[in-house]
């Protein structure tokens, strides 16, 4: 059984977060340490520690993460100019919180993708 992270508490609203979207499958909130004018995290309500732990039964949830990212980008007014979606996996990927999350970043030109 995977250990819960702070993100489970955010989903259950046990600690404060700037939640911008929530439904039966996913929750989205603003990153506490934004790296761009718009920086949100889209996470599954189910605790999946890393991308390596995604199962076939999670496919609907993974799809929802993308449709919510698209919707939030539109609402944020960054869809047309563009944005970046990032998921980090494990140590070499720079993952810090072991509850998978999609970073949605935009609001300025992000430049070429850098890798560390
Ligand atoms: P990663 O390095 O991909 O695991 O990213 C974890 C992200 O979670 C970082 O961008 C953090 O700033 C963000 N984060 C950590 N704790 C919180 C929190 N309580 N509320 C919002 N974002 C958080």
TrEMBL record:
Keyword Hydrolase among UniProt keywords:
yes
Give a yes or no for keyword DNA-binding in this entry.
Answer: no
Q: Where is this motif: Histidine triad motif?
A: 99-103
Q: What is its EC number?
A: 3.9.1.-
Listed A to Z, the keywords are:
Hydrolase
Q: Where is the HIT domain?
A: 6-115
Q: Which GO terms describe its molecular function?
A: hydrolase activity
**Which EC class heads this enzyme's classification?**
hydrolase
Q: Which Pfam families match?
A: HIT (PF01230)
- Cited PANTHER family: HISTIDINE TRIAD HIT PROTEIN
Tell me what this protein is called. Purine nucleoside phosphoramidase
Q: Which organism is it from?
A: Enterovibrio gelatinilyticus
């Amino acid at each position: 059984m995977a250990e819960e992270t702070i993100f489970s508490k955010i989903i259950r609203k046990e600690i404060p977060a700037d939640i911008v979207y929530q439904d039966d499958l996913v929750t989205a909130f603003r990153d506490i340490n934004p790296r761009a004018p718009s920086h949100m995290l889209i996470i599954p309500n189910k605790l999946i520690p890393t991308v390596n732990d995604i199962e076939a039964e999670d496919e609907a949830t993974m799809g929802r993460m993308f449709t919510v990212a698209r919707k939030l980008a539109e609402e944020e007014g960054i869809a047309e100019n563009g944005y970046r979606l990032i998921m980090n996996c494990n140590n070499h990927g720079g993952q810090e919180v072991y509850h998978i999350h999609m970073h949605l970043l935009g609001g300025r030109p992000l430049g070429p993708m850098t890798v560390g």
